[in-house]
User: Which sequence fits this backbone?
């Protein structure tokens, strides 16, 4: 993934030179596209390959205990995602790729369910945890690499991105590359925060009414720290993108002003 200087006037969703800074947040600026209303911050991560400091952060006792402490909650949520996946494509014997695999927990659950699982995770600390805890070797190469694009074209039955889309430098390109490694008829499943959520809207109102003094949750929804949230889609933006990439929407858990969920969860099929 390129880390060349990026012109944040160029919308990361529609590509028009129509994005302008609208919300000044802690350490970053939230841009809004006048052409498609996409929201994204003016920050991109440097990838571990370009930044030797990433590799210096390794799994110490503090990091191990921190991750262990979150394992139970993660297991519950990913258990639900596993059941959702299995309802749409029985997992036994399925070829799966988990993009943004984190500590390898979903890959581990897939393997327990009889699937064959690969995972992509750029952060060394998480890959080390996955190896030491679950015996899973995650791949550091991102999905745009020839390793995946040439070696695994039309290969996978299932590609998953749990809580990943909002963290990516270039979500459109990553989804396009993810679709390429899916078999025809294969399924893409993902979840991501929803910009239609009540507290996103309230945060925007609060920002405007206070002249920027009180952005409420916008400072926790976005962050310029490495591998944190860079963009948040509306349901409409995401479903239109999914269809533009040649996928057919199979299932969608809508969230919105009155819906309890703050997340978009969707299942889509490659034609
Ligand atoms: Zn746009």
Assistant:
């Amino acid at each position: 993934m390129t880390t060349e200087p990026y012109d944040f006037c160029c919308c990361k969703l529609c590509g028009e030179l129509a994005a302008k800074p609208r919300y000044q947040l802690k350490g970053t600026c939230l841009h809004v596209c006048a052409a498609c209303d996409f929201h994204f911050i003016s920050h991109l991560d440097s990838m571990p390959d370009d930044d030797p400091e990433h590799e210096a952060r390794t799994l110490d006792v503090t990091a191990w205990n921190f991750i262990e402490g979150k394992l139970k909650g993660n297991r519950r949520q990913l258990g639900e995602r596993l059941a959702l996946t299995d309802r749409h494509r029985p997992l036994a014997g399925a070829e799966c790729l988990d993009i943004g695999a984190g500590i390898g927990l979903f890959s581990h659950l897939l393997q327990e369910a009889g699937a064959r699982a690969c995972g992509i995770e750029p952060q060394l600390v998480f890959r080390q945890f996955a190896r030491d805890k679950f015996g899973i070797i995650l791949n550091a190469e991102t999905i745009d690499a020839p390793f995946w694009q040439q070696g695994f074209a039309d290969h996978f039955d299932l590609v998953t991105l749990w809580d990943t889309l909002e963290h990516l430098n270039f979500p459109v390109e990553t989804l396009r590359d993810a679709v390429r490694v899916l078999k025809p008829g294969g399924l893409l499943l993902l979840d991501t925060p929803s910009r239609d959520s009540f507290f996103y809207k309230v945060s925007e109102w609060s920002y405007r009414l206070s002249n920027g003094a009180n952005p409420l949750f916008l400072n926790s929804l976005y962050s310029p720290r490495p591998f944190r949230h860079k963009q948040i889609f509306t349901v409409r933006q995401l479903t239109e993108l999914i269809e533009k990439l040649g996928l057919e929407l199979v299932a969608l858990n809508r969230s919105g002003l009155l819906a309890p969920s703050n997340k978009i969860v969707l299942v889509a099929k490659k034609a």
